[in-house]
Design goal:
150 residues; elongated; mainly alpha; Multidrug-efflux Transporter Regulator, Chain: A, Domain 2
Length: 150
Amino acid sequence: MKIGELAKLSGLTASRIRFYEAAGLISAVERKANGYRDYPPDAVWILEIIASAQSAGFSLDQIRHLLPLGSGNWQHDALLDALKRKVAEIEDMQKRLKQNKAHLLAAIKNIESRPPDMTCFDRTRWVLDRLREEGAVAPTRGKARRLVAS
């Protein structure tokens, strides 16, 4: 099949398909006498797997090592291990994002509720003190960094 048909079936652009081919993710294809690439029918599902894996956060190098060595020769144990590691990475990232969100919400709350009758510098210190008490900001060593919160 020609690259245009493959692009239509896979939902990817022809340039993306050529990029995956150049990156070694899909087998180099033979060219017909007219110079057109001729892709096998299984190129559609390989491209679907590549696009899905990439959107799940796998790097191209990781994908390259997970793809089957030949037609249907999946390395099942390695694939399962990689999928489980990716799930663990996502769970760690979700935990960090939840903590980051909580810290940002604490900063917003403290900035919005700071006393208005203080100088900008004093209000900054007041907000930072509250954030340290809540664990949203790590205690500083030495000079405190100045946060513009006026």
